[in-house]
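Work through what follows:
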Amino acid sequence: MPLRSDWSDEFCPIRRSLDVLGDPWVLLIIREVLHGRGRFDTLRDTLRISEAVLSRRLTALTDAELLERAPYDSGGRTRWGYVATEAATDLLPVLQQLALWGERHTPMPEGGGHMAMIHVACGKETHRAESCSSCGELLEAGDMAWVKPWKNLSDPLQPAGTLV
């Protein structure tokens, strides 16, 4: 899924990675899928992305073997959602490092607040991307909750500080 150029045959692993991950929607979609929100409608509504753009990105992510289609029952009708592959789950530390970097190096918009990354296993906030800064365990997607205090600003049904 090239952003501007096809770098899939490059020797540089950063260029090859950007060939797959360089589109900003890609990491946002993977973030949602890692948090268990892999249904098309949920992704569309959460990300506020057009159906056409989302459909193209999901196809590309499936082709790149970052996501797999998974069936689910929707009122007696089988529908398809998306689950993360090992390649996508390996991006958790990248996403968490981006969050940590953004907290430190980008200005917080008015009304925002600190996003805490909670290691559910020990219940403590971590300040590292790959292992918990409190207990030292490796962090996995199913073991993480992100507390977003601004969540209630965009979704009045979500209480402030919702774990997502």
About this structure: The CA atoms of residues 3 and 23 lie 6 Å apart. Helices lie at 13-21, 24-34, 40-47, 51-63, 86-89, 92-105, 151-154. The beta strands are 67-74, 77-84, 116-119, 124-126, 144-148, 162-163. The two ends are 28 Å apart (CA to CA).
